[in-house]
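Consider this:
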Amino acid sequence: MLAKAGVKDGAVQVVTQGGDFGGMQRGLPIEKAMNRDTMLAWEMNGEPLPVPNGGPVRLLVPGWGGVSSTKWIVALDVIDYAWQGAFNTTLYVVFDKNGNYVRNVFQMPVKSVINSPAPNASLTAGPNTIAGYAWSGYGAIERVEVSTDGGTSWNDAEITMSDGSYSWVRFEYDWDATAGQAKLQSRATDAEGYVQPATVPWNKSGYQMNAIYEVPVTVK
C-alpha cells in the first residue's frame, strides 16, 4: 500500500492512526513499515477480522511490541521526521531509574517462562515434566535450556511445538526429580544468537523484562 501511494525519499516514519481515539497515534520507522512481514490485516483464519482483534483492519508488526500493531486503522501518514506523539515519547518508552531515556519499545527481546509446574508446587520424586514457552522478536527460537539447581547447570529441553520464526514455541524437559528443594529456570536462545540474560537493568515501567524467571518447587 505504501509503495502504491508513492513514498518519497526522505521519509522517516509512518504515523498510524487508530480509530479508538484521536491520540492513538504511533510512529513506525519507515524501514519497518516497508518490511515484507509488516502488514495490514483484515482477515484471521479465513474470516473477517473481529472487532476486538482490531477489525475491520489493523496493522500487524511481527516481532515488535503490541503497541506497534495499531488496531482499527483509519489513517497512515508518512512524515520526514521522528514522531513526537505520546506513544513514542512518554508511553511505551524505556526510562532508567534516573528518568533518562533509554529506548522505545519496539523489537521484543528473547524470553522464556516455565508454566508447569507452578511456583511453590509440591511434586513427587521421580519422573516429572518441566514445560513452558519461549519467544523472540529477533528470530526463531533455536534452543531452550532448563536448570533444576538455580542456574548452576543447564540441560537442553525439547522444542515440542513451533510454527515459524515469529511464533511462540513450546518446550519440555524430562526431569528425574529427587527429594528436596529445587529452583527451576529456563533460558532461551534465538536464531540471531541472543541469549536470555540472568538479569536486566531496571526501568520504571518494567517494559521488556526478559530476565530468567525462577520457579521454586518442593519434591517429596
The chain has two domains: 2-91, 111-219.
